[in-house]
Design goal:
- This protein has 810 residues and is of the alpha+beta class.
- It contains 27 helices and 18 strands.
- It has five domains: 139 residues, Beta-Lactamase, CATH 3.30.450; 73 residues; 112 residues, Beta-Lactamase, CATH 3.30.450; 139 residues, Reverse transcriptase/Diguanylate cyclase domain (Alpha-Beta Plaits); 181 residues, Hypothetical protein af1432, CATH 1.10.3210.
- 53% of the residues lie in helices and 16% in strands.
- The chain has a five-stranded antiparallel beta sheet, sandwiched between helices.
- It starts with a helix and ends in a 7-residue tail after the last helix.
Length: 810
Amino acid sequence: MSVKMKTLFIFTVSFLLFVTVTICISYLVFLKFIVNIEDTGINNSFRIFDSILDREEQGLKRTSLDWAHWDDTYNFMVDKNEGYIKSNLVDQSLQQLNLSFIILLDKNNKIFYELDGDIKDSERDILIDKITNIRYKKFFNPDKIEADSGTIYAYDKLFIVSEAPITTSDEKARSNGTLVMGRYVDKGLMSYINKTCKANIAFEGLPGNSHSLSEISISRSYDNINTSRNTKDINEESSILVSMSVERYAHTLAIKYLKIFGLLYIAALFMILVLNNRILDKYVLKRLKLLDDFIERVRKTKDTSLRLILAGDDELSKIADSTSNMVAELAVANNDVKEMDERFRLIMEATKDGYLDLDLVANKLYLNKEWKQELGYISKDESGLFYEHFSKIHPEFIEYLNNKYTNIDNNDELFDITYKMIKDTGEIIWVSERGKIVSKDDCGKPTRILSIVMDVTERKRYEEKILFLSYSDKLTGLSNRAYMEKQFEEIDKDKHSSYFIIMGDVNGLKLINDALGHRMGDKLIYNVSNEMRKICDYKDVVSRWSGDEFIILIKDREKDYVENLITKIKEACDNIKDFPISISIALGYAEKDDENKKSEVVMSIAEKRMYRNKLIEKKSTRNAITSSLLRTLHEKHSETEEHTMRIKNMSFKLGKRMGLPQDKLDELELLGLLHDIGKIGIPEQILLKPAKLTAEEWVIMKSHTEIGYRIAKSTPELSHIADEVLSHHERYDGTGYPNGLKGEDIPLLARIINVVDSFDVMTHKREYKLAKDMNYAIEELKRCSSTQFDPHIVAEFLELLQEDNNCGQP
C-alpha cells in the first residue's frame, strides 16, 4: 500500500472515529439533559395534582363541618324530623354544594339517613360499604369535633370524601353521629386537572393495604412518558394508583435538531478532510514520490553520480540533500572497498592461513583457496564445505568447538580457540582460530562468524614439552608441587567440588641418605612413588610435594576408598625389600567439608594426622618422643613394655572392629601407649606399694590423669590425645575421676582404653596382685557393663575375644 493510500486510510478512519465519538457524546449529553427536564416536569405535575386534590378536600371538609356543627342537624339525629329533610336533604342541596351524596351515620356507625343523588343501587352499596368502613376504622369518638377528608376509589371512580362528628353550634354537646359528604371526580374536574398538570391522568384501585407510597415509576417510549405512583385514601391506605401520560415534546424536538446538527457537522468535517488531503498530497506525498523514484533509479543504474534537489526548506528537502550526500559518500566508500578487497586478496594469497566465513543459520561456509589446499577440502559449494569442515575437526574437540560457537557470552565478540584438525593425508595438526561474531539472533546467540585459522602444531608441541617439564618431578615422573598448587587453585574456585587429600612422609630417608648415600635415597623415593602410581586410580593425582613428602588428590570418592588406598600403600611400602632397613611411610588424610572448604586447610589437617601417624611408626624419627616417654615410665613403674604393647595392639584391633577411621585408629594406638604417662609424676613409694593405698595416697594416685593431661598438652605431637589421657578413668555411670563425666560425654577413645586396660590388668600379674583367669575377667566386664564400662564397647570386645584364640596374649 502506498504512502498516499495509507495516509488517506488513516485520515478516513480518524474522521469516522471522531465523528462517531462526537455524535455519541452529543447524543448522550442531549438525552441526559432532556431526561432531567422531563423528570422535573413529571415531579411538578404530581405536585400540582396533589395540590388540586388537597384544595378540593379542604373545601369539602369546611362544608361538612358547617353542616355537622349545626343545631338543626344535631336535633335531626335525635328526632329525624321531616322538616329538616325537606329543607336540606334534597337533590337541590347536592347540586348547590356540588356533591354526589350526603350520608348521616348514628353512634353505632349505622346509616341514619342518606341522600345519594343519581348513584346506581349497585354502586351505592359499594360506596356505602367503603364509607361505613371509614367509620369502622377510625372508631366513633363522641368527644371528637374535628373533621377528616380524603379520597375513596369505588366502581372505577375517584371520590373526594369528608366526614365530621355531629354536634351543636357551640360544640359543647357530645357527638350523636357522623356526617359524611362526598363527590366524585367528574369530567370537568378531570379536564381541569389534566390541563393544569399538562398530562392525561387516570386512577386505578389497588386491593388491600400491601402497597406503600413509593417513588414515581417512569417508562418512556419514543413519543410518550408513562408514569405512576401510589397515593393514600382517607383510611391512610395506599389503595389508589395514579397514572399519568405525558407527551415528549422536548425529546422529539431535541432529536430533530440533533439530526440537523449531525448532518451539518459531518459535512463540515468532510470538507476539512478533502482540503487536508489535497494539501498533504501537494506538499508531502508528491515530494516523497520524487525521493523514492530517485533512490530506485540509483539502485537500478548503480550510478552514484546522480543527485536529487527538492525545493523548499523543510525536512523533506533536507532528506533529499542527505540522500544525495550519502550517494556521494557511497561512491567514495565503494572505491575504498575495492582497494581493500584487492589488498586482502593479495595478503591471503601470500600466506597459508585460512579465512573462514561461517553462517550458523544457513549451514554454509566460505573458505579461501589456500586453506582448502592446505587441508585437502574437496567440496565445491558452501553447504558441502560447512559439513566437510566439521568432519575434519578431531573427534575430541567436536563438542568443545560446538559449545564455543553456540555458547559464546553475549558480551564477547572476539574469541581465540585452539583445537586439532585432521588433514586429508591423515596427519593431525593443531590450529588456532581467532575470530569475531558478526551477527547474533534475538537470544544473543551467534549466527555468523568471521575468523582466521593458522597451523600452530610446532608451537603447541613446544608448549606441551615446556608445560610437562614445569609440572613434573624429574626424579619420579610424578606431578610436582607447582602442578598441585595449580590444582588446588582450580578446586578452590569450584564451591561444589568434593575431594580428599592424602599426605605421606617416607620414614628413614635421612638414615639411608647418611648411611648409603643420596643415590640410594633417590632410589627409595623412586620405588615408593612407583608403588603409589601403580596402586592409585588413573584419576587420582599423585605428586611429590618436597623431599620425602608426597600428596595424593582424590576427587569424587568415598571415605572407604581413601582408607583402603592408605592400607594398600602402607602394605606395598612394607614389602619393598631392596634396602638394608625396613621401609615404611606415614600417611594422613583429610576431607573437604562444610567447615574445611579451602584446600590449604584440608592439607594442613592431613599433615597433622600424618605426623600423628609418625608417632606410632617405629621407624619414624618422631617416634623418639614416644619412645623416650615410655622408657621413663617403664623405668619408674612396674608397667612393662609388654603390657603397653598389649594395650596398643588390643585397642587397635577393637577400634578397627568398631569401624573407626584411620586417623582415629592412629590416635587410639598412641593413646594405648601413653594413657598412663602421668604416672611418671607419682612418687615411687605409692606406685610400687604392694599393700592397699590410704585415702591420701589414693588421691595422689588419681592425680596421674591430670599429670598425663598436662604432659600431652605441652607436647605438640601429643596434644590431640590430651583429653583422652585425662578421661580414661572416667566411669560410664558418672562415678569415675577426675571430672565425673557420664555416658557419651566421655571421649570414645578413653572409653575403649578403659575396657582394654581393665581386662589386661585383671588377666596379668602385678606386684600387688595375682592374675585372674579369663572367665573371671569376662564375667567382671559383663558385671560392670553400663556402670564402669560402655555396654556397646564391652559387647564388641567380648566378641573380639571369642574370635581371637590368643586374646590374652600380647
